Amino acid sequence: MTPEFVLSIATESLTVTTMLAAPLLLSALAMGILVGVFQAATQINEMTLTFIPKLMVLVIALVVTGPWMLQLIVNYTRSLFMNIPQMIG
């Protein structure tokens, strides 16, 4: 197995990981900022006010982007399985 091949597998795995995590992390970040601005404006410091909206946004983001994420990970896994002969020999 050549170092270039190993590097391409590592690069692809990090890209897939980033693409899988991005929709959930970005939606949670956006909701956190919105809730933080709301709490700063109203001076309400309730912990459930930050948790429940983030959880609901994460569920919505997972429902919306879930099929795409599943297709992405299935395609990546399929390409790994197809490259097993190159990894061995």
Textual characterization of the structure:
The chain has 3 helices and no strands. The protein has 89 residues and is mainly alpha-helical. Helix 1 (3-42) runs antiparallel to helix 2 (47-82). The longest helix is centred in the first third of the chain and has 40 residues, at 3-42. It is elongated, with a radius of gyration of 19 Å. The protein starts with a helix and ends with a helix.
Distance between the termini: 7 Å
Radius of gyration: 19 Å
Q: Please estimate the helix content.
A: over 70%
Order of helices and strands: HHH
Task: Please tell me the overall pLDDT.
Answer: 91
| E-strand count | 0
Structural class: mainly alpha
Q: Please, how many helices?
A: 3
* Content of β-strand: under 5%
Flag low-confidence runs.
none
The general outline is elongated
Largest sheet: none
